[in-house]
């Protein structure tokens, strides 16, 4: 492992572990590199395992301020430490500042058992004034009586290291090369990472800089940057407002449904009361979220907080930029987020996938108990779509009809024809949306619920059969069920032809208007006005009837949902909010990276993008419920489209995404600055909806997955992987049919996309324990297809960190020729000192991955962190 090797392979320079929020960007840091010489062993039988603590001496208060630690180096009396010390600009240090270095012998690295070997002090001024900017100081025992070796302190300016200097440093360890790693919390290598567009939505970046050696002995520069995203809170707040607006509109629609029989009126009041409770709860949550300020992410330790349940867990972007000696910069992005799940509601009865399946199976019995017609999820989705169409098209047709009259008044034939064509198109769209069999049958059902309607069994009886705590819901063969079936009227009791006549009147009125232009221009206003009034009246009647019938469908669905279904709706709202925030973050990251890539933009508007979610959840205990939530949340993203709009300016306030729509169909508008927007293809500028195809692949890797594979059930994971492979394969076929594959990014790996998909298909169809190759293949395919990559576990902190660092090092190996002998060293380096350990610190205020030794024995070997970086902590 990196820190345990007796021969030093890397030089790591990192600053003290700090959390910086919106701090000004510093100039290059000034760093110190400690080393020890001829350390006295604690016993003749044992060589010391040394670690150095760096502290600042406060002369006035006679106290020490611990600053940072090096890593542990074992098995040598002359350790050259990988970890240096950085004092960033603005840090309270000057030439008079004294620094104390304390060297410890670490007997047991896993338990951090340490004994002091000795200490040395020096002033910053002495170091700066030294000719070679290097000091050699005697290391004294704690009582100051005897020397136990020496400490060598060298000054190192970041940004001024050349290859020759690196080789010179490496000469301290004969025959070895070293890799340079430094931390630049807010520094950049390229303005594309910190332009106004990026800075508008990505906040609080933390950066790490590495230099790794390639197989041909060249040096590549690698930079990690991790950042938060404003959509973590922005999307949930917008969605909550839309949820409240939609449910309030549903209450108004129920109130405007007209008179109902006592039975149905009582049920309507009950449903309205439940909607009111949901609205009140959502308003309270929105109010709490609006008060929050500070970091733009929800820490994993807050995943169970009720008022934060709509906010994604630990949402961060992770970008790796690679600069090679002879080649252009290459960027690789991953979005990391905790699995979208309703943690605050618990998983005692499973997650959404199981709960919805169970609920749907029981809903038929509930509908019989309440004398309702059973409507499938597809029917209720159709009802909501019809209501949305009415809300959009009905006022539009009315305004277009008025515009037609204005054109007639102006005696302009061209304008009249244009207005007439638009009115005709929108009316036909209106007819297509509303002339549906569901509307027709729902009108019949509504007729039976009006006061005075009497069936051959007499008036309906309102009862509480099927309510929680009441009698068991009746079966299809029970008397109550038979009564409900008999209460549905025969067609002869309702005039179906009346609905057809209403539509016929719409068509006649429109045809009469279309025939008007052949008349003399002077007659247009007089001829058109009564025809337009007739059309508007007919459309109003259709809209009113259709609105009431669809509202009645949703009333029946809501009646069958009380209270279980409404609770499930709330759970689904929570999970979807987390999933949409992650997707929006990923879309922004991918769009900003490819806004100048013509091939990517063509793909974006022709076929859309694939969004590949990698999950590391187990299929055991609570995590199977999380996976069931996540599956539904990711699936619901299929109803989301993106649209690019032109922002007013570069002001960050105008560059935030805006969400429009309703449940089942949301549009996310993404503003771009005017100069960026104008360079886009016309199809995108014209507002074409941009589709995203979400796919989910899951492979559990922890000890709970071992239990599931040996004694439990992994069918959920198998079904998810097979189903989403089919979606991914279908996307590839559409992509290859509509877009030249030359538009896709080039990779060093020569394997064809089709072959990668074939291998993935074989793997998802093969029963193999912890088959992480499925994740590797899905990730590679996503990148090859210009997709958006996501990685998740329960909190996006520990297993996610192992996966992200593994993927980054695999990309360096496969695409940039990272030497094989340095692969594991680079992997340990990223896990020990890279952005992911900073993510752990941000979440739980501890620099330890939450694993223990027994857990890691169950992990695939390449997902295990280096020694000393893990320990069981609360997460």
From TrEMBL:
<dbReference type="InterPro" id="IPR035892">
    <property type="entry name" value="C2_domain_sf"/>
</dbReference>
<comment type="similarity">
    <text>Belongs to the inositol 3,4-bisphosphate 4-phosphatase family.</text>
</comment>
<feature type="region of interest" description="Disordered">
    <location>
        <begin position="464"/>
        <end position="491"/>
    </location>
</feature>
<dbReference type="InterPro" id="IPR039034">
    <property type="entry name" value="INPP4"/>
</dbReference>
<keyword id="KW-0378">Hydrolase</keyword>
<feature type="compositionally biased region" description="Polar residues">
    <location>
        <begin position="472"/>
        <end position="485"/>
    </location>
</feature>
<feature type="domain" description="C2">
    <location>
        <begin position="4"/>
        <end position="137"/>
    </location>
</feature>
<dbReference type="InterPro" id="IPR000008">
    <property type="entry name" value="C2_dom"/>
</dbReference>
<keyword id="KW-0443">Lipid metabolism</keyword>
<dbReference type="GO" id="GO:0016316">
    <property type="term" value="F:phosphatidylinositol-3,4-bisphosphate 4-phosphatase activity"/>
</dbReference>
<protein>
    <recommendedName>
        <fullName>phosphatidylinositol-3,4-bisphosphate 4-phosphatase</fullName>
        <ecNumber>3.1.3.66</ecNumber>
    </recommendedName>
</protein>
<dbReference type="GO" id="GO:0005737">
    <property type="term" value="C:cytoplasm"/>
</dbReference>
<comment type="pathway">
    <text>Signal transduction; phosphatidylinositol signaling pathway.</text>
</comment>
């Amino acid at each position: 492992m990196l820190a345990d090797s007796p021969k030093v392979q890397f030089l790591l320079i990192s600053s003290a572990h700090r959390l910086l929020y919106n701090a000004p960007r510093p100039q290059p840091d000034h760093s110190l590199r400690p080393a020890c010489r001829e350390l006295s062993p604690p016993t003749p039988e044992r060589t010391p395992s040394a670690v150095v603590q760096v502290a600042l001496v406060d002369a006035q208060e006679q106290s020490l301020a611990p600053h940072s630690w090096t890593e542990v180096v074992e098995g040598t009396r002359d350790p050259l430490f990988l970890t240096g010390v950085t004092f960033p600009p603005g840090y309270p240090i000057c030439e008079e500042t004294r620094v104390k270095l304390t060297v410890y012998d670490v007997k047991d690295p896993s338990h951090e058992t340490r004994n002091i070997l000795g200490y040395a002090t020096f002033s910053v001024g002495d170091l700066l004034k030294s000719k070679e900017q290097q000091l050699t100081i005697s290391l004294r025992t704690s009582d100051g009586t005897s020397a136990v070796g020496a400490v060598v302190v060298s000054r190192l300016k970041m940004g001024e290291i050349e290859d020759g200097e690196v080789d010179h440093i490496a000469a301290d360890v004969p025959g070895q090369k070293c890799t340079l790693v430094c931390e630049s919390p807010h520094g950049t290598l390229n303005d594309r990472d910190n332009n106004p567009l990026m800075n508008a939505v990505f906040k609080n970046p933390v950066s790490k800089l590495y230099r790794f050696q390639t197989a041909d002995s060249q040096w590549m520069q690698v930079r990690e940057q991790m950042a938060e995203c404003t959509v973590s809170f922005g999307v949930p707040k917008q969605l909550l407002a839309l949820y409240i607006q939609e449910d309030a509109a549903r209450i108004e629609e129920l109130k405007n449904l007209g008179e109902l029989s006592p039975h149905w009126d009582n049920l309507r009041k009950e449903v309205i009361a439940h909607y009111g409770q949901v609205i009140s709860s959502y308003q309270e949550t929105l109010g709490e979220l609006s008060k929050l300020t500070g970091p733009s992410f929800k820490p994993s330790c807050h995943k169970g907080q009720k008022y934060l349940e709509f906010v994604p867990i630990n949402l961060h972007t992770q970008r790796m930029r690679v600069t090679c000696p002879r080649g252009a910069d290459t960027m690789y992005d991953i979005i990391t987020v905790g699995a979208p799940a309703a943690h605050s509601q618990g998983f005692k009865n499973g997650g959404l996938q199981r709960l919805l399946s169970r609920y749907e199976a029981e809903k038929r019995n509930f509908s019989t108990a309440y004398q309702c017609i059973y409507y499938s999820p597809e029917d209720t989705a159709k009802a909501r779509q019809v209501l949305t169409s009415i809300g959009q098209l009905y006022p539009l047709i009315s305004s277009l009809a008025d515009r037609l009259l204005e054109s007639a008044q102006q005696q302009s034939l061209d304008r009249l024809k244009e207005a007439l064509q638009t009115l005709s198109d929108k009316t036909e769209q209106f007819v297509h949306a509303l002339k549906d069999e569901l509307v027709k049958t729902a009108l019949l059902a509504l007729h039976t619920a009006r006061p005075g309607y009497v069936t051959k069994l007499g008036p309906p009886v309102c009862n509480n059969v099927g309510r929680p705590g009441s009698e068991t819901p009746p079966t299809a063969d029970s008397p109550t069920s038979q009564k409900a079936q008999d209460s549905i009227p025969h067609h002869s009791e309702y005039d179906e032809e009346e609905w057809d006549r209403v539509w016929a009147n719409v068509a006649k009125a429109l045809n009469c208007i279309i025939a008007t232009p052949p008349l003399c221009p002077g007659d247009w206003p007089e001829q058109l006005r009564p025809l337009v009034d007739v059309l508007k009246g007919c459309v109003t009647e259709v809209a009113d009837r259709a609105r009431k019938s669809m509202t009645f469908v949703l009333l029946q669905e809501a009646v069958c949902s009380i209270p279980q279904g409404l609770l499930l709706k709330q759970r689904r709202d929570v999970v979807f909010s987390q999933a949409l925030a992650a997707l929006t973050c990923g879309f922004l990251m991918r769009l900003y990276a490819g806004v100048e890539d013509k091939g990517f933009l063509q793909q974006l508007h022709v076929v859309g993008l694939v969004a590949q979610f990698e999950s590391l959840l187990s299929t055991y205990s609570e995590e199977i419920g999380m996976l069931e939530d996540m599956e539904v949340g990711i699936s619901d993203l299929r109803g989301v489209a993106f649209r690019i709009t032109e922002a007013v300016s570069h002001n960050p306030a105008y560059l935030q995404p805006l969400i429009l729509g309703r449940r089942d169909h949301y549009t996310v508008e993404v503003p771009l600055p005017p100069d960026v927007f104008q360079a886009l293809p016309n199809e995108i500028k014209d507002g074409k909806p941009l589709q995203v195809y979400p796919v989910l692949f899951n492979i559990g890797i922890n000890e709970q997955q071992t239990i599931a594979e040996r004694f439990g059930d992994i069918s959920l994971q198998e079904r998810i992987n097979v189903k989403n492979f089919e979606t991914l394969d279908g996307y590839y076929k559409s992509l290859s049919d509509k877009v030249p594959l030359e538009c896709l990014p080039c990779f060093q790996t020569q394997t064809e996309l089709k072959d990668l998909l074939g291998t993935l298909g074989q793997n998802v169809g093969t029963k193999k324990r912890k088959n992480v190759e499925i994740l590797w293949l899905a990730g590679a395919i996503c990148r090859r297809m210009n997709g958006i990559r996501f990685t998740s576990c329960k909190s996006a902190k520990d297993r996610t960190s192992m996966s992200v660092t593994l993927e980054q090092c695999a990309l360096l190996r496969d695409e940039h020729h990272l030497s094989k002998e340095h692969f594991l060293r680079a992997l340990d380096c990223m896990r020990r000192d890279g952005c992911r350990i900073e993510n752990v610190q941000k979440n739980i205020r501890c620099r330890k991955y939450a694993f223990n030794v027994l857990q890691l024995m169950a992990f695939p070997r390449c997902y295990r962190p280096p020694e000393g970086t893990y320990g069981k902590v609360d997460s």
